[in-house]
From TrEMBL:
Superkingdom of this protein's organism: Eukaryota
Protein name: MID49 protein
Keyword tags: Membrane, Mitochondrion, Mitochondrion outer membrane, Transmembrane, Transmembrane helix
Cross-referenced PANTHER family: MITOCHONDRIAL DYNAMICS PROTEIN MID49, MITOCHONDRIAL DYNAMICS PROTEINS 49/51 FAMILY MEMBER
GO BP, sorted A to Z: mitochondrion organization; positive regulation of mitochondrial fission
Phylogenetic placement of the source organism: Eukaryota, Metazoa, Chordata, Craniata, Vertebrata
GO cellular component: mitochondrial outer membrane
Ranges for region Disordered: 82-131
Domain Mab-21-like HhH/H2TH-like span(s) in chain numbering: 359-445
Mitochondrial dynamics protein MID51-like C-terminal domain segment(s): 155-344
Topological category with respect to the lipid bilayer: Single-pass membrane protein
Organism expressing this protein natively: Nyctibius bracteatus
Transmembrane segments: 21-47
Gene3D superfamilies per the UniProt record, alphabetical: 1.10.1410.40, 3.30.460.90
Annotated localization: Mitochondrion outer membrane
Length: 463
């Protein structure tokens, strides 16, 4: 009786398992496709056999039965492994078919014969040619034309906005300080001179300070407190014969010297508190606000098409020197920085005009690379220009087809200057253009450029 009950329960379990497997197989072709259904059917059959043998009574002590069971198990596993797997293409085709409900009745009159899927026509294989390796010359020219080119529309709009702000600022200062003889304000910077920018986002606004040469004289940088030949002092002379007040700029004197710091502070207060920038910005279709926390005199301009930063520099021209009110950080407040920018631009363009050279293009690429690189950004601008001017004295061939050679030579020259920690100014060899760099910065720059000598492409990767 117990044996009968056990067999009946086994049949019920087999029937339940069989119903589940039948339902699974019935839906497999719809879900997995023909190939997938075949794989599932064979695998299910093998698993079912393994379950049957696991649940069926074993003949204890019968070695032939055990051997037969073991052989059947290996055969089932071999059957599963030998089943062909569907290809990626077949799986895509199967997944693209609509899923039908298993309870959906067949369409009357529809033939239920085996479906024959016509294979899509094979696309003829096209032998792809191997990618062509670009030379450094081609990479530099491509980099210059595609990455460094600033749209003319942005340049024009930025220049127009800056000129309008320049005119508004000069009119205001003349009305507020009519006694101060400012010269005509003008714009400067790489954006206007074409010597290397990544975007139309920065312009210099120069504010000329007109001094009477009979009342003022220049003190050389070597004689100043910082002993730096690039910084000068402007001394008020003959106070015995021409007392204070004779010059309108005497109000900015500190210890008989025209203080760049005091002048900057006065102008900073004017920019922040006196000028109605919202009204001017509304007139120009933009938003203008001064940078309050900066040591520099700076305006931020936001327009629908450009965002522009304008740096203001009071400047003095005396004895063929151009001095900016840009003192170094620290307690020293009377120093004026000698600027060679105008001479740099003039000399580079003059050399290119004499031999149809590519110095300006090389400088644009180098400025773009260094400005965009976190370790090299302090090299952009004046230092690169002076390296190219030094190299022009020894390497006269600056034709466009020699751009790659000159580019690598500039890198080698830079590494050499960084190893010494000295880059002499082209216009005054007493001035070291690296004097304000930290030793760690010099080491990092030198390491990066040393690698770039053998792999210049490292510098041409967009950051």
């Amino acid at each position: 009786m117990a044996e009968l009950t056990r067999q009946r329960g086994k049949r019920q379990e087999d029937g339940g398992l069989g119903s589940i497997l039948d339902l699974l197989l019935a839906n497999a072709r719809l879900v997995l496709g023909v190939t997938g259904a075949a794989v599932l059917a064979i695998a299910t059959l093998a698993v079912k056999r393994l379950i049957d043998r696991a649940t069926s009574p074993r003949d204890e002590g019968d070695p032939k039965a055990e051997q037969k069971t073991l052989e059947e198990s290996w055969q089932d596993l071999a059957l599963i492994k030998a089943t062909p797997k569907p290809t990626k293409k077949q799986r895509r085709e199967d997944l693209s078919k609509p899923l039908l409900s298993p309870a959906q009745p067949p369409v009357p009159g529809e033939a239920h014969g085996p479906r024959v899927c016509s294979a899509p026509p094979e696309t003829p294989r096209v032998e792809s040619s191997p990618p062509r390796c670009l030379t450094l010359q081609e990479k530099l020219l491509s980099h210059y034309s595609s990455w460094l080119a600033v749209p003319e529309v942005q340049v024009s709009l930025a220049s127009q906005l800056a000129r309008s702000i320049c005119a508004q600022l000069q009119n205001f200062l003349q009305s507020k300080y009519p006694e101060l003889p400012f010269g005509s304000f003008f714009l400067s910077g790489p954006l206007l001179d074409g010597l290397g920018v990544l975007a139309a986002d920065h312009i210099h606004l120069m504010l000329p300070v007109v001094l009477d040469a009979a009342l003022w004289s220049l003190i050389p940088g070597e004689d100043t407190v910082v002993r730096n030949p690039q910084y000068w002092m402007i001394k008020r002379t003959d106070l015995e014969y021409f007392p204070r007040g004779r010059s309108p700029w005497d109000r900015f004197i500190v210890g008989r010297y025209l203080s760049s710091n005091v002048l900057n502070k006065t102008l900073h207060k004017v920019l922040v508190a006196s000028i109605n920038w919202p009204a001017i910005g509304s007139l120009l279709g933009s938003v203008i606000h001064p940078v309050v926390a900066s040591r520099e005199l700076k305006l931020e301009v936001k327009h629908d098409q450009v965002e522009l930063s304008i740096s203001l520099f009071p400047m003095v021209e005396m004895e063929d020197k151009v001095l900016l009110a840009a003192p170094p950080e620290g307690l020293v407040e009377n120093l004026w920085l000698e600027s060679f920018y105008r001479a740099e631009v003039s000399k580079v363009k003059e050399l290119d005009a004499s031999d149809s050279g590519a110095r300006q293009r090389c400088l644009c690429i180098l400025n773009g690379v260094c400005r965009n690189h976190p370790a090299l950004h302090k090299l952009s601008g004046s230092p690169l220009t002076h390296v190219i001017l030094h190299l022009s004295a020894t390497s006269p061939d600056w034709a466009e087809e020699s751009l790659a050679d000159r580019f690598q030579e500039v890198l080698e020259e830079l590494v050499g200057y960084l190893e010494k920690g000295v880059l002499p100014s082209y216009f005054n060899h007493k001035i070291n253009l690296f004097c304000e760099l930290l030793e760690e910065e010099i080491d990092e720059m030198g390491f990066m450029l040393y690698r770039a000598i053998s792999e210049p492409e490292l510098l041409l990767q967009e950051k």
